[in-house]
Write a structure and sequence with these properties.
Number of strands of chain A: 11
Number of helices of chain A: 0
Helix content of chain A: under 10%
Oligomer: heterodimer
Radius of gyration of chain A: 13 Å
Radius of gyration of chain B: 14 Å
Strand content of chain B: over 45%
Largest interface: A-B, 30 and 26 residues
Order of helices and strands of chain A: EEEEEEEEEEE
Order of helices and strands of chain B: EEEEEEEEEEEE
Helix content of chain B: under 10%
Structural class of chain A: mainly beta
Number of strands of chain B: 12
Structural class of chain B: mainly beta
Shape of chain B: globular
Distance between the termini of chain B: 41 Å
Largest sheet of chain B: 6 strands, mixed
Strand content of chain A: over 45%
Shape of chain A: globular
Number of helices of chain B: 0
């Protein structure tokens, strides 16, 4: 596609439920990032994929959060047993992964609300 | 660990005037990238301008320019001839320079309002 897309745009779920957030990166981009943006804050890094493997998952807050990218393209962020504190905008970004081509291109985000 | 500080939570500017947004950062890295991103109410993060730390020349993109002071670890954004469409959150971001890419570290942002 022309840009990074994310679905759904908005998700409302009840505390304790499981959710999946999807990211479709720019075609050909090997690097994919997930960030979380709480209200009034800048985005915070969660996890980074290079190809199919997670190159850095140090930003995941706890073991309720998990992400996959099985074919090196689409990625899914999975949150188990959601808590009200998980409410935020979840942003996905992709880049070419080439040294010197550092720009990350962002999707419009998924706003997650946990009630 | 790297940190990015934006000390101005909100700024306003009259249309057609010039405004400067401040950003400081802390790192022990010698080579890195710095960015300014714009986030309008649509939530879409848009890259405004990028600076490579090893380049002394300040980056410029049309009405947007930066003042990069490496020794002071300062990276301010100047917007000239401000337009109503410039109204948005602006985030300063840092990225280490390594083979491949690394995650961005963002500041808390500055909300800019352009007033007609």
């Amino acid at each position: 596609g022309a840009g990074v897309s994310q679905t759904p745009s908005n998700k409302v779920t009840e505390k304790g439920k499981y959710v999946e957030l999807r990211c479709d990166p720019i075609s050909g981009h090997t690097a994919l990032y997930w960030y979380r943006q709480s209200l009034g804050q800048g985005p915070e890094f969660l996890i980074y994929f290079q190809g199919t493997g997670a190159a850095d998952d140090s930003g995941l807050p706890n073991d309720r959060f998990f992400a996959v990218r099985p074919e090196g393209s689409v990625s899914t962020l999975k949150i188990q047993r959601t808590e009200r504190g998980d409410s935020a905008v979840y942003l996905c970004a992709s880049s070419s992964g080439l040294a010197g081509r550092s720009e990350q291109y962002f999707g419009p985000g998924t706003r997650l609300t946990v009630t | 660990a790297q940190t990015v500080t934006q000390s101005q939570p909100e700024m306003s500017v009259q249309e057609a005037e010039t405004v400067t947004l401040s950003c400081t950062y802390d790192t022990s890295e010698s080579n890195y990238y710095l960015f300014w991103y714009k986030q309008p109410p649509s939530r879409q993060m848009i890259l405004v301008i990028r600076q490579e730390a090893y380049k002394q020349q300040n980056a410029t993109e049309n009405r947007f320019s930066v003042n990069f002071q490496k020794a002071a670890k300062s990276f301010s954004l100047k917007i000239s001839d401000s337009q109503l469409g410039d109204t948005a959150m602006y985030f300063c971001a840092f990225m280490k320079h390594e083979s491949g890419n690394t995650p961005l570290v963002f500041g808390k942002g500055t909300r800019l309002s352009v007033i007609a």
